[in-house]
Specification:
It is globular and about 40 Å long. Helix 1 packs across helix 2 and helix 7 crosses helix 9. The protein contains nine helices and eight strands. Helix content is 40%, strand content 20%. By secondary structure, the protein is an alpha/beta fold. It binds D-xylitol-5-phosphate (DX5) and zinc ion (ZN).
Length: 220
């Protein structure tokens, strides 16, 4: 089993030191940086827009993974790709036009992700698999960092791993929310290829050391 990729989420970073914090996790071996975009409508919290994605893009050569928690993502996807996202994930619950939203990301020139909330049926991911570079299993209700990991995400990852193999696609599976040294091993064993970690990395006094601890816990 190859190593898990950890995607530190800048939602938990000190935004006054954003470039420095992103550089620290990149130096510690992070390959992805996760940017949580929240609109105060789809989720009850407001975070970043394209300008923060552009700031992250300028500060790193990591793969920039943008998680849109916004209504009608089909309208906004291209702005985030233009800002420098390598991949944009949209939520299946955020639009009746999921296919259009995925196509908008692809047409704008980025890789395509689709995220589902903790109780959204996995059938939407199953049906979309051949359109997706990334399938995102939420292990918390989206909107806030620092929440408790919902263990139902593990069975959902296992199911998706089976469905992926039946479909014969190479879509990566990402788990987002509540990842810590206590949960990352189970998430990895259940099939997560990429784990988002916000508070476990940027909430620690030494983000680089925290990243290394997560990597060891995933491998244990
Ligand atoms: C939650 C976000 C997550 C969040 C994770 O809505 O999608 O990416 O930053 O934060 P932690 O790792 O603290 O649960
Ligand atoms: Zn996220």
């Amino acid at each position: 089993m190859s190593g898990i990729r950890i995607a530190p989420s800048v939602l938990a970073a000190d935004l006054g030191r954003l470039a420095e914090q992103v550089a620290a996790v990149e130096a510690a071996g992070a390959e992805w940086i996760h940017v949580d975009v929240m609109d105060g409508h789809f989720v009850p919290n407001l975070s970043f827009g394209p300008s923060v994605v552009a700031a992250v893009r300028r500060s790193t050569s990591c793969f920039v993974d943008v998680h849109l928690m916004i209504d009608a993502p089909e309208r906004w996807a291209s702005a985030y790709v233009d800002a420098g996202a390598d991949l944009v994930s949209v939520h299946a619950e955020a639009t009746p036009h999921v296919h259009r939203a995925l196509a908008a990301v692809r047409e704008a020139g980025a890789q395509v992700g689709l995220a589902v909330n903790p109780l959204t049926p996995l059938t939407v991911l199953e049906d979309a698999f051949d359109e997706l570079d990334l399938a995102v299993v939420m292990a918390v209700d989206p909107g806030f960092g620092g929440q408790h990991f919902l263990s139902r995400a593990l069975a959902r990852l296992e199911r998706l791993r089976e469905l992926r193999s039946v479909r014969g696609v190479d879509t990566l599976l990402q788990v987002d929310g509540g990842i810590s040294v206590k949960t990352i091993g189970d998430a990895r064993r259940s099939g997560a290829d990429v784990a988002v970690a916000g508070s476990a990395v940027f909430g620690a006094s030494d983000a680089a050391a925290a990243l290394e601890e997560l990597r060891s816990a995933a491998a244990a």
